[in-house]
Design brief:
The protein is α/β, with parallel strands linked by helices. The chain has 2 domains: 316 residues, Adenylosuccinate Synthetase, Chain A, domain 3 (Alpha-Beta Complex), CATH 3.90.170.10; 97 residues, Adenylosuccinate Synthetase, subunit A, domain 2, CATH 1.10.300.10. The protein is 32% helix and 21% strand. The strands form 5 sheets. Strands 9-7-5-2-10-1-11-15-19-20 form a 10-stranded mixed beta sheet, sandwiched between helices. A hairpin with a 7-residue loop joins strand 19 and strand 20. Helix 3 packs across helix 4 and helix 5 crosses helix 6. The radius of gyration is 22 Å and the shape is globular. Bound molecules: 6-O-phosphoryl inosine monophosphate (IMO) and magnesium ion.
């Protein structure tokens, strides 16, 4: 699986998002996991992610929390400590998938250290957005930011807390609720009741308790026995709280190093970092997007690529591919390979543009400035002929010449091989080079 595989020891690959999410990470992960993976780990974000995968019968599944590798029944899946978990969403995903796949404590583990998204986090997410008015982030409204904020305030509840004696759990909930209820009361909003939250936790424990364990012991065992591990990134580099377009970002660090760290795996073990990308760009929510096409081209990309959110159903903003972002990501994420999805989609346009640099204060630059400066950047484009059809192509050589020219241009500009090319939604429509 890895171009970079070591001769001995574990093989740890990561799939991370290169732009603003929705690059087809779930698709690459389910493809790779079926090629033979012992363990898949989801380690960042929460149910703000939407990873679409197809099972063997062609049925579509949209995962928000479950690692996409769970589709491979012979491997183990872990939700690691860096994830924030909405217990109702996780329970629903498990219930739905259990109709086709057996999910047991033997093949699925939830970290006892992962933080819980509580009902008040969702309420706070909406309130903070509302308070920001025109400068709202455009969050998914799933309570992600407030749950991570409580974690950083050391005021969070963790999955392991669900099994505490009632009096201890009650005390934790009381403490966690205190600052939030002060705020809600001051706004004449309904406050949250300790008993109701205790009941909420009880249900969560009944539904999920069997899967909660110290995930690190499973990860240590996998590393020490030289297993093949796949880390499933969520979100993407430009949504990273440190490296993305702050404040229009998510509240975790989906870059490759932090994703591995949150999975409980040190950098020395990472053998491969696969950047998932599309042949164009898309973004949901607010924030700068230099190559956005708020015109017929953007509308065509959205329709051809079915660019509507898997999580919120929101129409995605669409635009041309931006190589500055990929070039920055090459250093921050350290891509060893790229997976280029939707090559079929972009080929439906007669003419395709690619951003090869920005004009920034009269100078051409090849990096991504900080958010408010990025908004001032004007993309510099190169134009390519489109109108290609990838139907039935099985190998790279089968692809139309213009499609290959497009792929090779990206590789040459960025200096990272494109090893996987998606030409349709199913795993079979993947060209491996
Ligand atoms: P996957 O894993 C696309 C975006 C939201 C919003 C910002 C903050 O499917 O690629 P949040 O709810 O996280 O506080 O929202 O981040 N966002 C995503 N956009 N795909 C995702 O995940 C996203 N996760 C968060 O739209 O702009
Ligand atoms: Mg998404």
């Amino acid at each position: 699986m890895s171009n970079n595989k070591r001769s001995r020891g574990p093989c740890v690959s990561e799939v991370v998002g290169t732009y603003w999410g929705d690059e087809g990470k779930g698709r690459v992960i389910s493809y790779l996991s079926q090629k033979g993976v012992d363990l898949t780990i989801r380690s960042t974000g929460g149910n703000n992610a939407g990873h679409t995968v197809y099972d063997r019968t062609g049925k579509k599944h949209a995962f928000h929390l479950l690692p996409s590798g769970i589709m491979n029944e012979t491997s183990k899946s872990i939700i690691a400590s860096g994830v924030v978990i909405d217990p109702e969403v996780l329970h629903q995903e498990i219930t739905e998938l259990s109709a086709s796949i057996s999910i047991t404590p033997q093949n699925f583990v939830v970290s006892d250290r992962a933080h819980i998204i509580m009902p008040y986090h969702k309420k706070l997410d909406a309130i903070y957005e509302q308070m920001k008015g025109d400068s709202k982030v455009g969050t998914t409204g799933r309570g992600i930011g407030p749950a991570y904020a409580d974690k950083v305030h050391r005021n969070g509840l963790r999955m392991g807390d669900l099994s505490l004696p009632q009096n201890e759990l009650r005390a934790k909930i009381e403490q966690a609720l205190r600052p939030h209820n002060v705020l809600l009361k001051s706004m004449n909003e309904e406050t949250f009741d300790v008993d109701a939250m205790l009941e909420y936790c009880k249900t969560a424990h009944e539904n999920l308790g069997q899967y909660i364990d110290d995930s690190q012991k499973h990860i240590n065992a996998a590393i020490n026995s030289g297993q093949t591990i796949l880390i499933e990134g969520a979100q993407a580099l430009e949504l990273d709280i440190d490296h993305g377009n702050y404040p229009y970002v998510t509240s975790s660090s989906p870059n490759a190093s932090s994703t591995a760290g949150a999975a409980g795996i040190g950098p020395i073990f990472i053998t491969d970092v696969i950047g998932a990308m599309k042949a164009y760009c898309s973004r949901v929510g607010e924030g700068p997007f230099p190559t956005e096409q708020e015109n017929e081209v953007g509308d065509q990309i959205r329709e051809f690529g079915h660019e509507y959110g898997a999580t919120t159903g929101r129409p995605r903003r669409c635009g041309w591919l931006d190589l500055n972002i990929l070039k920055s990501g090459k250093v921050i994420n350290g891509y060893t390979q790229l997976c280029l999805n939707h090559l079929d989609t972009i080929g439906k346009l007669p003419e395709i543009k690619v951003c090869v640099g920005y004009n920034y204060n009269g100078e051409q630059i090849d990096y991504v400035p900080e958010s408010s400066e990025l908004a001032k950047c004007k993309p510099i484009y190169e134009t390519f002929a489109g109108n290609w059809d990838t139907t039935g192509c099985k190998t790279y050589a089968d692809l139309p010449e213009n499609a290959r020219k497009y792929v090779e241009f990206i590789e040459e500009q960025v200096g990272v091989p494109i090893s996987y090319i998606g030409i349709g939604p199913s795993n079979e429509e993947t060209i491996v080079r």
